[in-house]
Amino acid sequence: MTTTQDVLAQLDQVFDSSVSRLAQWLSIPSVGTDPACNDDTRRAGQWLVDQLSAIGLEAQLAETPGHPVVMAHHPGPVGYAGPHILFYGHYDVQPADPLDLWKSPPFEPVIEDGPTGKRIVARGAADDKGQVMTFVEALRAWKDVTGEIPCRITCLVEGEEESGSVNLDNFLTDQREALVGTGAANGPCDFVVVSDTGMWDSNTPALTTMLRGLIYLEFILHGPSHDLHSGMAGGCVPNPINELTRIFGRLHDADRCIQIPGFYDDVQPLSDALRAEWEALGFDEQGFLTECGLTEDVGEYGYSLLERQWGRPTCDINGIVGGYTGKGAKTVIPATASVKVSCRLVPNQDPDKITQSFIEWVKAQVPPACKLEVLDHGSGRPFVMAPDSPYVEVARAGLEEDLGKRPVLMGCGGSIPVVESFKRILGLDALLVGFGLSDDRVHSPNEKFDLKCFNLGQRTHAALLSRFAGMQV
Amino acid sequence: MTTTQDVLAQLDQVFDSSVSRLAQWLSIPSVGTDPACNDDTRRAGQWLVDQLSAIGLEAQLAETPGHPVVMAHHPGPVGYAGPHILFYGHYDVQPADPLDLWKSPPFEPVIEDGPTGKRIVARGAADDKGQVMTFVEALRAWKDVTGEIPCRITCLVEGEEESGSVNLDNFLTDQREALVGTGAANGPCDFVVVSDTGMWDSNTPALTTMLRGLIYLEFILHGPSHDLHSGMAGGCVPNPINELTRIFGRLHDADRCIQIPGFYDDVQPLSDALRAEWEALGFDEQGFLTECGLTEDVGEYGYSLLERQWGRPTCDINGIVGGYTGKGAKTVIPATASVKVSCRLVPNQDPDKITQSFIEWVKAQVPPACKLEVLDHGSGRPFVMAPDSPYVEVARAGLEEDLGKRPVLMGCGGSIPVVESFKRILGLDALLVGFGLSDDRVHSPNEKFDLKCFNLGQRTHAALLSRFAGMQV
Question: What is the reported pTM?
Answer without folding.
Answer: 0.80
